[in-house]
Design brief:
Strand order of the largest sheet: 4-3-5-6
Shape: globular
Strand content: 5-15%
Number of helices: 12
Mean pLDDT: 91
Number of strands: 6
Largest sheet: 4 strands, mixed
Length: about 270
């Protein structure tokens, strides 16, 4: 891991990866054997094959190869691929469900020129998803309704007490190395008991992984790319030093209002 970037990994946006990062070298990219040592038997592909991180090689379609062999081709010294590997380790059940759905869609649409909505949904969350645990239904509603200033500024203390934000998408992690305004994630909001939010992070992630996997197991989750609301992640309290000022949330380019025809979300 490049030394100059290591301090960035202490930022709150990387919270879901902290238990894994503690087990990896702090000053270089990990070797394949070091990553594979973190893959417990429960880390398996959508087809049940144990996940192993391997060098890139010519192979069949990426998702199908992962599904059948468990081999996740990972480019060395590459942040995008490293974060993908770490998300497999942090959210194994959800990654497995996404992998299975991809393969089902590939088989069902064999020969079709377009990917289809379901695969678009899967890719959007895989690359750019975030899991939001909310112990307060009213705060969750403010997020769904795009009421950013009320949520992140006027209700700031409540958000810090009653919500947790864990990035899932590996492309979001890569962008977080050099964050910029406008980075937006697809938010899966999970109702959570307040006790879960105070539990050790490993327990939180295990429960949220199970809940996210359950959500994506249903066909309704794949029906539209707009089922999950966008979340401008630098508005999350503490995720950008600049958002400690009220006027930060007046930037309409970053904190856009919702569309009047935004669909209701499945709870």
């Amino acid at each position: 891991m490049a030394t100059r970037l290591t301090p960035a990994l202490d930022a709150p946006i990387f919270a879901a990866l902290v238990p894994l990062l503690r087990c990896l070298p702090p000053d270089r990219f990990p070797r394949y054997d070091e990553l594979n040592a973190l893959a417990t038997p429960s880390v398996a592909s959508g087809g049940g094959a144990p996940i192993r991180f391997v060098p890139p090689a010519a192979s069949a379609q990426y998702e199908t190869h992962v599904f059948e062999t468990g081999e996740v081709q990972t480019r060395p010294d590459n942040w995008h691929d490293l974060f993908n590997a770490l998300v497999w380790l942090a959210f194994p059940r959800t990654k497995a469900v996404l992998n299975r759905h991809h393969c089902e869609e590939i088989r069902a649409r064999r020969g079709a020129r377009l990917r289809g909505t379901a695969r678009d949904v899967l890719t959007l969350f895989d690359e750019g998803g975030i899991v939001v645990a909310a112990a307060d239904a009213e705060l969750a509603s403010l997020l769904r309704e795009f009421r950013w200033k009320e949520l992140f500024w006027r209700r700031r203390a409540e958000v810090q007490r009653s919500m947790r934000f864990y990035v899932f998408g590996h492309a979001i992690y890569e962008k977080a190395l050099e964050p910029y305004k406008g980075v937006t994630a697809k938010a899966l909001i999970v109702d959570a008991a307040s006790g879960l939010l105070d539990a050790p992070i490993e327990l939180q992630l295990s429960e949220l992984d199970a809940r996210a996997a359950d959500y994506f197991s249903g066909s309704q989750a794949l029906s539209s790319t707009r089922n999950l609301p966008p979340l401008p992640i630098l508005g999350i309290p503490g995720w950008d030093p600049s958002n400690a000022r009220e006027e930060y949330y007046d930037d309409a380019a970053q904190f856009r209002p919702g569309r009047s025809n935004e669909p209701a979300l499945r709870k």
